[in-house]
Amino acid sequence: MNLLEDLVVIDFSQFLSGPSAGLRLADMGAQVIKIEKPYVGDVCRELYVSDVMIQGESTIFHAINRNKKSYVADLKVKNDLLKIKQLIAKADVLIHNFRPGVMDRLGLSYTVVKALNSSIVYASISGYGNEGPWKDLPGQDLLLQAASGMTWLSNDSNSMPTAMGVAVVDILAGAHLTQGILASLFERAIKGEGALIEVSLFESALDFQFEVLTCFLNDSNQLPVRSAVNNGHAYISAPYGIYKTSDGHLALAMGNIVELAELLNCKALQGYSDSKNWFILRDEIKVILAAHLLSQSTEFWLSVLIPADIWCSDVLNYGQLIQEQGYKQLNMEQLVTTSYGLNILTTRCPIRVDGQILTSPIGAPSLGEHNEFIDQQFLI
Amino acid sequence: MSHLPLKGLTVLEFSQYLSGPSAGLRLADLGARVIKIERPKVGDACRQLAIKDLWADDGSSLLFHTINRNKESFSADLKNSDDLQCVKKLIKEADVVIHNFRPGVMEKIGLDYDCVKLINAKIIYATVSGFGNEGPWKDRPGQDLLLQSLSGLVYTSGNEKDSPIPFGIAIADIICGAHLVQGILAALVRRQKKGVGALIELSLLESLLDFQFELLTTYFNGKQLPKRSAENNAHPLLSAPYGIYSTLDGHIAIAMANIHLLASTLHCETLAAFPLQEAFSNRDEVKIILSKHLASQASTYWVEKLHAANIWAMEVLDWSKIKEHPAYKILQMEQTVKTANGKEMITTRCPIRINGQRLFSSSPAPQLGADNNKLIEEFSLKNSA
Question: CA A49 to CA B299: how far, in whole Å?
Answer without folding.
Answer: 28
